[in-house]
Amino acid sequence: MSPGEGTERAPSSAPAGNTSTPGQTVGPFFAFGLPYPGGPELVPPGHPEAVRLHGVVLDGAGDPVPDALLELWQPDPAGRIPREPGSLHRDGYTFTGWGRAGTDNAGRYSFTTLPPAPTEPARAAFFALAVFARGLLDRLFTRVYLPDDEVALAADPLLGGLPEERRRTLVAARDPHGLRFDVVLQGEGETVFLAHRHG
After folding, report:
1. Whole-structure pTM value
2. pLDDT, tens digit, for every residue of 27-41?
3. How far apart are CA 134 and CA 30, in angstroms?
């Protein structure tokens, strides 16, 4: 007999008329089990095509979030979505298109990866980013567009549906260290976050 088979659910003890409320976060406990060696390094730092994607995660008061966790998904430089395993055990040469990085005490994160290419002709290239942090009941999803192709950025359907000041929160900036992308969880300059349909 499988669990629950042949049994009835106990009636709710909640008084009539009361509704459920959301749960509360009890962590964060990200640093105890989710970061792993090589997580932020989709390619070794010495790779000839390596690019650094980095930035800071800020809360609504503009303070750094020292214990956030970010996950990165991306196509490769040919616009192909990688299907290879090995993200949790890097072998030094297989590009899996996925990585995980935690923030440090100043809210900073960093990935070493390859520049993505568009997955469709005449589309803008971007990284997909998920953010986990204290106070969030679920992860947040956003995109990090490359800043180079102004024509593709202007034609992108998602960016085209946003006001100019909101659009800027999804485009990385080039700096001496690579690509800079700050994540603002709420308040002034809040990053645009996307609804994700499961299934």
Report:
1. 0.83
2. 666 666 787 889 999
3. 10
pLDDT of residue 10: 45
Residue 12 has what pLDDT?
A: 46
Return the half-sphere exposure (C-beta side, CA atoms, 13 A cut-off) of residue 109: 31
Among candidates 106, 87, 108, which has minimal Cα distance to 97?
87
- Which helix or strand (DSSP H or E) is residue 151 part of? helix 150-155
> Taking a C-beta distance cutoff of 8 angstroms, is the pair 53, 174 a contact?
no
- Give the up-direction half-sphere exposure of residue 64: CA atoms within 13 A in the CB hemisphere: 12
Domain-located, residue 191 = no
What dihedral angle (degrees, nearest 10) is formed by the CA atoms of 19, 196, 33, 60?
-70
- Strand duo 140-145 + 126-132: pairing: antiparallel
- Tokens standing for residue 6: 């042949």
Task: Provide the number of structural domains found in the chain.
Answer: 1
> What is the average pLDDT score of the chain?
87
Sheet of 98-102, strand order = 98-102, 69-73, 126-132, 140-145
Could you give the CA distance from residue 110 to residue 18 in angstroms, rounded to a whole number?
A: 45
Q: Tell me: the pLDDT tens digits for 149-161?
A: 999 999 999 999 9
Instruction: Output the pLDDT for position 8.
Output: 45
* Residue 129 lies in domain: 30-184
Q: Which two tokens stand for residue 195?
A: 């609804």
Residue 54 burial (CB count, 10 A): 20
In a domain, 196, yes or no: no
Residue 146 is part of a domain; what is its CATH number? 2.60.130.10
